[in-house]
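Supplementary Note 3. Input sequence used for the single-chain structure prediction.
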Amino acid sequence: MDLPRNPTRAVKVGSVIIGDSNPIVVQSMCATRTQDIDATVKQSNDLHQAGAGIVRIAVDNRKDAKALEIIRDQTEANLSIDLQENYRMAALVAPMVQKIRYNPGHLYHHERKKPWQDKVRYLVDIADKNDCAIRVGVNAGSVDPEKKDMFPADDSISPMLVSAEEHCELLDKIGFTRYVVSLKDSDPDKVVEVNRRFAELRPDIPLHLGVTEAGLPPDGIIKTRIAFEQLISQGIGDTIRVSLTLPNARKAEEISAGNEILADIAAGRVRSVVAFDRSHLNIISCPSCSRVENEAFIDLAEDVKKMTEYAHDYPFTIAVMGCRVNGPGETDDADLGLWCGPRAVTLKKGPETLGRYSYDEILGRLKAELDRLIEHKLP
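The predicted structure, written as discrete structure tokens, is reproduced below.
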């Protein structure tokens, strides 16, 4: 059967069109360092050949932008550029890509005295002149602090909605409608709720779906499937990413996982009865990307999963994050968090930092803290 679709407007991104009842676009992000040109070209092409309609690449500085010039000439993929704090990098990279992705929560980091509206107008002007679409990427772990302060601490969904709404309103006011929105969380239930609520408010805007920090397969695929089945079966969602913690050589598995989920939903083979079980240990880990500062992070995530099997029956969340962008903020909500840097791992208990340890030491330290949590949980 055909997938039901919300009547969203069409947004052209290179050779693909997102929304307006067009096929749902499956995409991914390069995990290689952008300045490693050969590796990034290979991964872009691997993802493209696996069926990625869009491939995202991170650009943090001028050297990354210079590398992108060479990468662009060696891949046929539609490229989306990922901007974090330095939104002005858009001027350097827009001529080489088909889409610009910015995070509203990160706009405040750069030129803090400048109103965010002026920064968005700058991005729109660049996108318009270079035939680029825009993604407004709202993440639960990096929402604008002003929006978070408007709501109780236990309400992480309303700040995301307010942030997305106000950015959409400004883009519409400017007259730029070639944009999509994403609202992501590591909790599939929250992904479902926030996207349902946004789709009710703005059914015209195409949505990019994803469960961020879904983690290692197969658990990461299951979490993502739960969210996608409930949203896509109701017509919500126009482009997707399955965010998995994978070695570089296996990154294309994100595309095959996405296509399999879409095929199953279309055929009625849904599995949401396999609920996200909050009564057991939950390990979240960010997808490998070019901002991972030490690839040992991927092996560490696997080791954490194995080491913590003894704690399966306890309702704790452990977060394993691989970069400075997701690491500090998105470990705060976990019972225990690992923020993996170039040479050391920061161990956290909620927002509290417990210390920094080598990659060789961290598993033992994590186990000791987990044992303390279990001891306090026991009757």
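The domain at 11-266 is CATH 3.20.20.20 (TIM Barrel). DSSP finds twelve helices and 15 strands in the chain.
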